[in-house]
Write a structure and sequence with these properties.
Layout: E1 3-9, H1 15-25, E2 28-33, E3 36-42, H2 43-52, E4 60-67, H3 71-79, E5 92-101, H4 108-127, E6 138-146, E7 149-155, H5 177-185, E8 194-197, H6 204-213, H7 235-247, E9 256-261, H8 264-277, E10 283-287, E11 301-304, H9 312-315, H10 318-330, E12 336-341, H11 346-350, E13 356-362, E14 365-372, H12 379-384
Parallel strand pairs: 5-6, 8-9, 8-11, 9-10, 11-12
Antiparallel strand pairs: 1-3, 1-4, 2-3, 4-7, 6-7, 12-14, 13-14
Length: 385
């Protein structure tokens, strides 16, 4: 079967997590760069990666790459690519995004317009038509320029992979599903361990954790734009990938996952989102202030995204909030705490220096993933928990 070079973008700083996911799916990694992992796979890989990757933002199929210092070179390089191997005569195609970093060509709108024109010129010659109806399946195109190297891709995902389909409602400054999943995977937490998010908001951390525990693939209940690309990806490959994902679900799993928030309205949103994700029975949501954080058992995990103080008036309350969080965490016996925040005084007010600290970009915002590590449970308790 034909193989492709596939590119999976991710949050900056989380490339190693995505690389492990791809390796676990059984595919060969060809390159790891800032914010993306490239791997080799066939049509089946496109389906399985879209359905199964928890930390990728999308799955891109590389059409080609070339150097371009001028718009003429960009046009000629794009036109030289074998677009007829990907886009049929009735295909609907457009350049959905162009990104340029440290390159002489830097205007996204000009790049998008020129690339579209170059593709039209080639396909006009191939299909012997002067005008394209574009009445068929969608083929969104993404272009990346890095130090004058142009990488041309087809977006096989469509909507970003963080859109699992369950988060219809959200609160202020929600963390994305892909970032939440990646942060959970950075911890030793597993489905048979306790997990509490005291600032759960719309429930993303608890829901992503519950989906992992139940073996629910993140893309199991959504569609992808490339499902209509029958010339590239046979329908049978999609059917196989979805069936594989359905068979991996563990409906009878038991968990101890809890989400708290001071806002009763947002807790109702979290419950509804969990229901849409099919994991509402695995999570206990409760309206509760962080000052009431407690748990009778040992060796649990806190994984949370507390307020950053984006607004000036909110910053004034942060010291007290983080101090309270630290005080309540100190009362939990043998627990581990993982906190993502942009608040640079977090350690000061939590009252403890983190054992590990990882810089992660949440969009364009620089954040820190503070990791306060507790002891491992005795092996007997781990196997019997």
């Amino acid at each position: 079967m034909r193989t492709f070079e596939l590119i999976a973008p991710c949050h900056f700083g989380l490339e190693a997590v995505l690389k492990k996911e791809i390796l676990d799916l059984g595919y060969e990694i060809s390159r790891v760069e800032d914010g993306r992992v490239t791997f080799i796979g066939d049509a089946e890989a496109v389906c399985r990666a879209n359905i199964g990757l928890r930390t990728a933002e999308r799955v891109l199929l590389k059409v080609g790459s070339f150097q371009a210092l001028t718009f003429e070179e960009l046009f000629d390089g794009t036109k030289a690519l074998p677009w007829e191997d990907y886009i049929p005569k009735d295909g609907r195609f457009w350049v959905t995004k162009a990104t340029s970093i440290k390159s002489r060509l830097f205007s996204p709108s000009d790049i998008q317009s020129l690339v579209k024109k170059a593709i039209v010129d080639r396909l006009r010659d191939i299909y012997h038509v002067q005008w394209f109806e574009e009445s068929g399946q969608a083929y969104p195109i993404r272009i990346f320029l890095m130090k004058d190297l142009v990488t041309v891709t087809l977006d096989t995902s469509g909507d970003s992979l963080h859109k699992r389909g369950y988060r219809k409602l959200s609160g202020k400054a929600p963390i994305t599903e892909t970032l939440a999943a990646a942060l959970i995977l950075l911890t030793p937490w597993r489905g048979d361990r306790i997990l509490v998010d005291p600032f759960c908001g719309s429930g993303t951390f608890p829901i992503e954790a519950a989906m992992m525990a139940a073996g629910i693939a993140p893309g199991l209940h959504r569609d992808f734009v490339s499902r209509g690309w029958s010339g590239l990806i046979p329908a049978a490959e999609w059917e196989y990938a979805y069936e594989e994902a359905r068979e991996a679900v563990r409906p009878d799993v038991e968990t101890d996952i809890q989400g708290y928030d001071i806002d009763g309205g947002i807790i109702r949103c979290a419950r509804e989102n969990a229901k849409l994700a099919g994991v509402d029975h695995l999570i206990h949501f409760q309206q509760r202030d962080v000052a009431a954080l407690s748990h009778p058992k040992k060796y649990g995990f806190i994984i949370t995204n507390p307020p950053y103080g984006e607004r000036l008036e909110d910053k004034e309350s942060l010291p007290a909030l983080y101090r309270t969080m630290g005080q309540q965490f100190a009362k939990l016996d043998c627990w581990s705490e993982y906190v993502i925040t942009a608040y640079e005084e977090a350690e000061t007010y939590i009252g403890r220096r983190a054992d590990k600290n990882r810089k992660i970009y949440n969009g364009m915002m620089k954040t820190y993933f503070y990791q306060f590590l507790g002891p491992k449970p005795p092996r007997r308790e781990r196997s019997g928990s």
